[in-house]
Write the structure tokens for this entry.
Amino acid sequence: MGPYFEFRLPDVGEGVAEAEITVWHVRAGDRIQEDQSLVDVMTDKATVDMTSPVDGIVRAVHGEVGAMVPVGAVLVEIEVEGAAGEVVPATSAEVVVPAAGTSSELSAKLPGDWPAGEAFTPRRASEPNAPLAAPSTRRRAKQAGVALWDVPTTGPAGRVTAKDLDAFLERLDAKTSLPARSDLAGEREGVTDTRIIGLRRKIAEKMQDAKRRIPHIAYVEEIDMTSVEALRQVLNDDRRTERPKLTLLPFFIHALIRVLPDFPQINARYDDDAGVLHAHDAVHVGIATQTPGGLMVPVVRHAEALDLWRIASEIARLGRAARDGTARRDELSGSTITITSLGPLGGIATTPVINHPEVAIIAPNKIVERPVVEGSFVSVRKIMNLSCSFDHRIVDGYDAASFVQRMKRMLEHPALIFMQGEQLRHSAP
């Protein structure tokens, strides 16, 4: 037996003392190559793809999926060429650090060029002679549950390019269909146990901590969105081709920008351990975004310095980055207030959980058409409930209601959103 290399959990910085094992890509007996993925671990800040610094054969792996391991712990023992019995000192390994998210286990999917009717089992990332690919391409393949060996390549030396993966996923989507619905056959039995690990566990811990530490107060108000919807339609119809299509979120953010200076305690982060409220002049808006790995909150920074179109572009860019796992860590932290929206699935009202250590969260619900009495007439208007939660330690009920009423006024009279300085102050009720 040759010498072996002890791959240890490196110090990834920012005071991280331990990490959770989320996905193993190798097992004992696998032959691996340098830069091949070994294991994904999750810290409080990010998911980290650990790659091998050497070629060799995996002698042993340490730790189960879901286990917490300290910095410096041996994760993988790799047998390498050399004098018998020699232990190769562990050196700093290359660590690829994406922003967040987790990688799922590979699942059986039908590749685009696999003959119909034949069984197919994808190979795992632990098999030898793994094809070359950029870290971002490997990450996307893992998120899609695709083995890179099954992707036809056009790159040099068999390298899988981003275009190769895109083409394969398009063919995969075209050929994969849902199984036919079976007839009901009486009572069902059985329980599926799923261990909550990785990003899902981080979300659970964060929600539990927020509800445990923050006394929430909810406030829901009905808002007539007819005028702002009409304005949005006009702006989208007249937009230049290079501009993104406007959703309602940029209008909500612009309304926040106008209202928050009069409610500085709401655009804030509360350090309840130190008993200090950090009220921010800058408006860094977190946008709750659903991704394949779970809920993430990318941040539109300095929204107060952006117009509607730039806010829309930033929301779209951050949403794509969060979903494909390329968002940087600084793009997923530091928000001062959060907006969460389910769009058409928004329901009548919600009670959103505050993104600790913030003190408020805004939740637009879905828009519905309702008859509304206007003087002696009844007209059909586009109505939406705005649900908000506040940290009652910091925000009193009166201030919460006043804040939401100001938001209501801005959205029902969208010309106010674009007024500046003295004009806006003189228009305030």
